[in-house]
Each structure stands twice: as structure tokens, then as C-alpha cells.
Design brief:
The longest helix is centred in the last third of the chain and has 25 residues. The termini are far apart. The chain contains 16 helices and nine strands. It is of the alpha/beta class. Strand 1 and strand 2 form a beta hairpin.
């Protein structure tokens, strides 16, 4: 018992910055450069005034050919995450670095409200108006602006899209409703795909009893941005975590809501994960998922009152996202122990999609293994690189008319 308590205490000290790992205090661009890769950073303005910082790894660590056009792939983080999730493992385990070394032009997106999305042309983060968004706005404004910017800057007409968790949610939402944008996506790779969440096991489901009154959620989790109190995380942590060592990472709301897999976690990287995650979102965004758990539908945000829904949607209920309208080739990667993208919900999603070109189910994996799992390179990242290369070959073949 003394040993485990010492480990927990040491981990907590490291996570708070007392250790020597320099990545704890770096931003994403600095982490990329720290490992010897070229890094670029840009501000992208959305049509409703938010300014999002995106990062780019234009080529591999040992590739000095600066004028070469490479196939472009855009990576979008999950709930409470940021672009850091793609670069906070070691280089041979981080998807962004792996793809860059395999010849891709890699872009890392961010959504409004996280560490890299706290600027607006006129609104302050101290206002309710700034935080009045859920993933509806990510799909409608953030994703189109970021993808269009990446394509324009890289001078490419199409782009591959990889999303994790909520990154898949906004992909399904955007590509089902915005056909102009969808036509520019040559492949959509969905890691831990989330659409309907009626069967999720995450503690988010308990918030469904409060989501009708967002004021209650605001009182518990922060007035505008989602900042759970120590009392809330400790209370949920005692329910979810199995032991003293588990509680070290379950005190972090990201692991608490998404689950943790001891076998796949590189404990030496835990301080870096915790230093950069959670990266933030709005209370409304989290409430949106709680609403969908209760309804069992892939729907827009429910304003709770018929007249408010009519103001926003022209009808008394929220509009639904119809994934059967997606015409983009989709590759699905799911896990049998996933708390958010459960096998039942993924099965429902797969049945509605008409353009699935690849599907893989991981055994004994959970939600965060797709980004931080030590075996991710061999179990899924090689598949991802193969899918991207094949998609690029087909695109070149079609463009040449052969």
C-alpha cells in the first residue's frame, strides 16, 4: 500500500510540473519541434467570428524537400481534447508524426473553447455569448473553415479527414448536411466513432437527468466553460476507479469520462497527457451529449422549450443528423470496451452508413487507446496509413482518367 501511495504521490507531483519533462510546459508547435519535426501554426477565422489556432507538420523529420506537394490529412481531436492528443506520445507512437514520416502533409485542428480556440473577433471569454455553442457549431462553422484553410494553404483540392470521438461526431454532422464540403473529402477515418450515444457507459449519462436545465450543469461544472469541481471529480472517481493507482488518472476528467486502459497506457507519458488534457469545451457541448443519451438520437442541441426550438430550427423538436446522406468513403475503427462509442451504438451507425469501405473492431480496447495506446501503431496506424495511400492512389488514377 505504501508503494502504491508513493507512486500516486509522485505522479501527481510530475503532473503539476515538478518533473523535468519539458513537454509539460510546451504548446503543440513546440512539442512538434522538440522532436525534430517542422511545425507551422496558423489562425483560422470562422464565419461567426471565432479564431482557431491550427498546427501543421508539413513533412517528416528526415524529409528536407520543402517544395514537394504531399497528400493532405486533417486530424480532429475528441471531446475535451485538443490538437495535442496527436503528438503527446513518443514520435513512433503518435499518429501525426507517423503520418508525416510516411509522406503526408499533416494538419491538426482545434475546436472553439479549447486551449487553442479562446479568441474571437469581438467576444470575450468572460461572456455567456462566447460559450454559447455545442458540437453543432463545430460542424457548421469550425470544421469547414479549418478544412478549407488547410486545402488552400497546401494547394490541394481534396483532403483526408481523421476524427477521434467528437472529431468523428462533427464529421458525421458536417458531411451529412454540407455536401459542398463533403465533396472535398476523399476519405473519412473515424476512430471511436460517435453518433448516437443511447448505450454509452460514460458518467456523462448521469448528466442527462440535469441536461434539460443547463443552469444545474453550469452550477456543477462551471458557469460557461466545462471546469468540473474537485468535489465532482473525486465523487465520480470513487465510483469509477478501481484502485489507488487508477484514481491518479481518474482525477483527470478526461479519463473519468472516457475510461482508462492500464495495459495500453504508457505511464511515463501520463504527466504529459495530464498537462495538456482536458483542454476545455463549453458546458453546452457536454450537455448536448447528455441529451442524446436520453433521446437515443443523433440530433442537434435541444433548447428544451418548443418556442426556442422553433426559433432555431423552425420546428418544436431538434433537427436530426441523417448519416445515410453521407457520400464520403468512411473507415470505422471501434473498440469493444469503449464507454462512449459502444459496440451497440457503432453497430447502429454502421447500418445507416452507405459508404463504409473498411471496418475494424479492437478487442479489449477503450476510447482513449486510439490516441494514446502503446499498441496503436501496429494495431491501427499501419491500417490508417494504408487506407490513406490507397485513397490517394485512386484519386490520382481518377484525375488522370486511367
Amino acid at each position: 500500500m505504501l508503494t502504491t501511495r508513493y507512486i500516486v504521490f509522485s505522479l501527481c507531483l510530475v503532473a503539476r510540473g515538478f518533473a523535468e519533462d519539458p513537454e509539460i510546459n510546451m504548446n503543440v508547435a513546440q512539442i512538434i519541434q522538440h522532436w525534430g519535426y517542422p511545425a507551422e501554426e496558423y489562425d483560422v477565422a470562422t464565419s461567426d467570428g471565432y479564431i482557431l489556432t491550427v498546427q501543421r507538420v508539413p513533412r517528416g523529420r528526415n524529409d528536407q524537400a520543402t517544395g514537394t506537394k504531399r497528400p493532405v490529412v486533417f486530424l480532429q481531436h475528441g471531446l475535451l481534447g485538443s490538437s495535442s492528443q496527436w503528438v503527446t506520445n513518443l514520435p513512433h507512437q503518435s499518429l501525426a508524426f507517423i503520418l508525416a514520416d510516411k509522406g503526408f502533409d499533416v494538419w491538426l485542428g482545434n475546436s472553439r473553447g479549447n486551449t487553442y480556440g479562446l479568441k474571437h473577433e469581438r467576444l470575450s471569454t468572460d461572456t455567456d455569448e462566447f460559450w454559447d455553442f455545442s458540437f453543432d457549431e463545430f460542424a457548421k462553422y469550425d470544421l469547414p473553415a479549418s478544412l478549407e484553410f488547410a486545402m488552400a494553404r497546401s494547394q490541394q483540392r481534396t483532403i483526408a479527414y481523421i476524427g477521434h470521438s467528437q472529431g468523428t461526431t462533427i464529421g458525421f454532422a458536417a458531411f451529412s448536411r454540407n455536401q459542398t464540403l463533403a465533396a472535398k473529402i476523399n476519405l473519412f477515418i473515424a476512430l471511436a466513432p460517435v453518433a448516437t450515444v443511447g448505450n454509452m457507459k460514460s458518467p456523462i449519462r448521469y448528466m442527462s437527468y440535469l441536461s434539460g436545465g443547463i443552469q444545474w450543469l453550469s452550477w456543477l461544472f462551471g458557469v460557461r466553460d466545462f471546469l468540473p469541481s474537485t468535489f465532482v471529480t473525486r465523487s465520480l472517481g470513487r465510483y469509477v476507479c478501481e484502485d489507488d493507482v487508477g484514481s491518479a488518472w481518474c482525477s483527470n476528467i478526461m479519463f473519468l469520462l472516457c475510461g482508462y486502459d492500464k495495459k495500453q497506457l504508457n505511464m511515463t507519458r501520463l504527466p504529459v497527457y495530464v498537462a495538456h488534457t482536458p483542454a476545455g469545451t463549453s458546458v453546452k457541448d457536454v450537455a448536448h451529449f447528455a441529451q442524446m443519451y436520453k433521446s437515443g438520437k443523433f440530433q442537434m442541441y435541444d433548447y428544451g422549450w418548443r418556442y426556442k426550438n422553433r426559433m432555431h430550427y423552425g420546428q418544436s423538436t431538434p433537427k436530426l443528423y441523417d448519416v445515410s446522406k453521407i457520400r464520403v468513403p468512411v473507415a470505422l475503427f471501434s473498440a469493444d470496451k469503449d464507454w462512449l462509442a459502444t459496440p451497440k451504438d457503432v453497430s447502429k451507425l454502421k447500418a445507416k452508413l452507405k459508404t463504409v469501405v473498411f471496418s475494424k473492431d479492437l478487442v479489449s480496447w477503450d476510447h482513449l487507446d486510439f490516441i494514446w495506446g502503446m499498441d496503436a501503431p501496429s494495431l491501427i496506424y499501419e491500417d490508417i496509413a494504408g487506407l490513406l495511400k490507397n485513397s490517394n492512389r485512386l484519386e490520382r488514377k481518377n484525375a488522370s482518367g486511367n
